[in-house]
Amino acid sequence: MSSIAEPSSPPPRRATPSLSAVQWTGVGMLSVLIAIVTLGPMVLPFDPGESVCPPFSRPSLPHPLGCNDVGQDLLAGILSGGRISLAVGLVTALVATALATVIAIGSAWRGGFVDIAVMRFVDAVMALPFLPLVVVLSAFFGASYTVQIGILCLVLWTQPLRELRAQALNLRRADYTDAARAMGASAWYVTTRHILPELVPLIVPQFIRIAHAAILTESALSFLGLGDPIAKSWGTILFHANARTAFLTDAWLWWVMPPGLLIALSVLGLALLGHGIGDRLQDGTVSGTERDGDAAPRLGDALVEARDVTLSYGEARALHGVALSIPKGETLGLIGESGSGKSTLAMTMLRLLPPAARVERGSAWVGEDDLLGLPKAALRHVRGRRIGLVPQAAMNALNPVRSVGSQIAEAVRVHGATRAEATARAAELMRLVSLPEDRLSAHPHTLSGGMRQRVAIAIALAAEPEVLIADEPTTGLDVLVQESILDLLQDLSARLGLTVLFITHDLPMIARRAGRLLILQDGRVVDEGAPTDLARAPGHVHTQALFDAILPLRGSKRWDRDIPSGAPLLEVQEVSVTFGTGLPDRLRGVRPVQALREATIRLRAGEVLGLVGGSGSGKTTLARAVLGLQPMTGGRIEVAGGAPRPGGPATMIFQDPYQSMRPAMRVRDVVAEPLTIRGMPPEGKVRQALSSAGLPSDDALLDRRLGSLSGGQRQRVAVARAIVAAPKLLVADEPTSMLDQSLRAELLALLERLRAEHELGILFITHDLALARHFCDRIAVMCEGEIIETGAADAILEAAHPYTRDLIKAVDA
Questions:
Q1: How many C-beta atoms surround the C-beta of residue 473 within 10 A?
Q2: Nearest to 102 by CA among 148, 176, 157
Q3: Are the beta carbons of 513 and 522 closer than 8 angstroms?
Q4: Which residue in 714, 733, 338 sits closest to 521, CA to CA?
């Protein structure tokens, strides 16, 4: 049985969330205040409403703060009033935060008119002036703390709702949310199991902010006489002090100062506790990491040079004396599997490493600048100006709520340009990466994957760097878009004289473009040379294994089967799907988009049907319709003789093993989830599914969290989750696009074994025509929502349609 081995150098682990010194100070202040107001009245011998000394008595040993105008002990009143003030703040925060969270999730989940109505109501409430609104409502409804809490909740829930709703919308569309729905999970299950835990890093700071505002507002209202005149709070104590002209006598020192000081300390404690707490709960900050040891000498005259770079995460060493050299104008391809240290090396050069990382020794040079030894101020000048970064996931790298033009302009302005200069430069950069200037006002989600990647390249080039680090810039893109991005980078390198470090796991793609390749394995450079030389005579067994794993478009098929006969397991008959047809969309001016146009396919048990096409061709939309996640506007789908439904006989393996499963979950919970949703006991099924997926089934793996697994291990866990409930149809949506070259072959061998053992029908979605030709029995090619060609996998090489011939040309180059 094949399996994916543990990487010898595990990927960096995120730092454990902890409170900063500032936040601990806030915790300490609040703890002391709560303890004093809770326990103080129990210790003092006086009742706060009882006259125990002459009016206006000065502080004395029995009465440390003296007495008020009716002879009541002020200390007892302040301690008792603190209970009310803090209770109003905390109860208001609890109710308002819970209300905002429930409405935010419900609004994001329902969408449409519900979401529009909620947000317009929120806009109306937030348009009203806060304090006058609270004063008017308090005066109208009467003075009581119950009414006061209700009014504060009514006003203070709106701002948190806006922020929570924005995140809930993203979570609603997340792959792991779709995965749970595809298993048949209810809205309650998805909300409590997947959405709510991810909202906690936002909910906690919202709670703190509301408590902060509520304490201040209650004190202000009570000081104005709108609090409960019978019960005491810090605000009503100030009100009575003002009414009795305590401010005009020396009584203010013991009557006014203490409650005012306690109000200030309580809101200061909340402010200190809330400082950056959301970021710490989300975990995973980055920082500049300077070298611990001595610099290795610079030997050559190349523009980019790294010498003896050695880096560790705790006890695990991730880089072992890595060296590279890139002359000016050259493109160097950095190749390696997940965990080999490719991205770690790039982030080391930029000093954008997690806090746990430690550079033990070595040097990294751009020109005459030793990046690992520069002070942070000088390093910020080098970043962007001398060396630019194109990050891997363009959608995650771009801010979803800002236009791409503003983000490009921001990259220009951070280096000292004026607003006008930045705007003009943004337009110039859009032209440089072959994007129309009218898309400057577009938001990232309205652009295709290739366009977003071009925007990321434009941002990296904003300050005209000499060196460009492209970290997996083509991962997840279809072959035609990949070629366009590669053409763009090649053209920019020639026109601008760029030196490019191209990081990728796609050996066939970079071998056609790079002047040299550098092969990494387990944090070590194991081979180096021109692509043709390495293909002909590799210097290391790992290099040989990488080239052997390449599936050429032509030649004998790797998996050659007899096409099964019999009744269709899946029948898709003239299915159409159109987005943007609802009334809310029309009211917003959204134009309808037809994602599928009368698509027709058939798939039998034990057969593998490849669905091939570029980004936006409709492949995933068709897959979602088959799973019952996407309503159809026309046509018919039958899966195993019935209508498609979540949790039915079809299940799905998603494209991205990092996004389709929450990293905080344990392996046993992830694999058991389909059984949990169906109310079936997991018993030994989880272990059996893991064994079938080529993973260990012991408790050590079952108790590990997904965040500690490699990409290949995560994808095998995804396979185990997909097969644990014994489905009849497996929808594999780009299951290999995020994996390394060698891991792709292993995963395909696993799927083939599962197909043969369980007579699974597999709908295999991919943009890789060579991969589809080797693994699939038949291939259906999609373009702009239509299936333009269907036939046996080998026959696809004789394609008649121009689009299919373009796909062949991109792979066969």
A1: 26
A2: 157
A3: no
A4: 338
> Cα-Cα-Cα-Cα dihedral of 467, 471, 475, 479, to 10°?
20
> Greatest CA span in the chain, whole angstroms?
106
**SS3 track for 358-378:** EEEEEEEEECCEECCCCCHHH
Judge contact between 485 and 450, C-beta under 8 A. Answer: yes
Regions in the chain scoring below 70 on pLDDT = 1-19, 142-143, 229, 247, 275-300, 393-396, 476, 582-590, 812-813
Rounded CA-CA distance 483/477 in Å is 10
Query: Do 372 and 362 contact (CB within 8 A), yes or no?
Result: yes
> For residue 210, what are the CA distances in angstroms to 22, 82, 132, 706?
19, 18, 18, 34
Q: 559, exposed or middle or buried, with CB in 10 Å at 0-12, 13-18, 19+? A: middle
CA distance 649 to 641: 10
Beta carbons within 8 Å of 65's beta carbon, 6+ residues apart:
59, 73, 74, 75, 78, 254, 255, 258
Q: Report the Cα 445 to chain-centroid distance in Å.
A: 14
Q: Return the SS3 of 813.
A: coil
pLDDT of residue 583: 66
What are the backbone dihedrals phi and psi of residue 636, each rounded to the nearest 5 degrees, phi first? Answer: -145, 140
Task: Please tell me the predicted confidence (pLDDT) of residue 173.
Answer: 79
* In contact, 618 and 595? CB cutoff 8 Å: yes
Going by the DSSP 8-state scheme, the letter that residue 195 receives in this structure is I
Note the residue count of the chain. 813
CB-based contact 316:357 (threshold 8 Å): no
Angle between helix axes 196-223 and 234-243 (nearest 10 degrees) is 10
Q: And the tokens for 456? A: 């990321």
Straight-line distance from the first to the last Cα atom of the chain, in angstroms, rounded to the nearest whole number: 35
On whether the pTM is more than 0.85, the answer is no
> At 518, which amino acid appears?
L
Alpha-helix runs per DSSP H in 304-385: 342-350, 376-385
Q: Which residues contact 230 (CB under 8 A, 6 or more apart)?
A: none
- Which helix (H) or strand (E) segment holds residue 31: the answer is helix 21-43
Distance CA 735, CA 551 (A): 16
Show the 3-state SS of 777-788.
CEEEEEECCEEE
For residue 229, give the amino acid letter: P
Q: Which residue, among 259, 279, 272, has the nearest Cα to 211 in the 3D structure?
A: 272
Q: What is the predicted pLDDT for the residue at 18?
A: 57
Q: Which two tokens stand for residue 297?
A: 């000498």
Backbone phi and psi for residue 197, each to the nearest 5 degrees, phi listed first: -60, -35
Instruction: Concatenate the DSSP letters of all residues of 54-85 into one string.
Output: -TTPPP-SSSTT-B-TTSBBHHHHHHHHHHHH
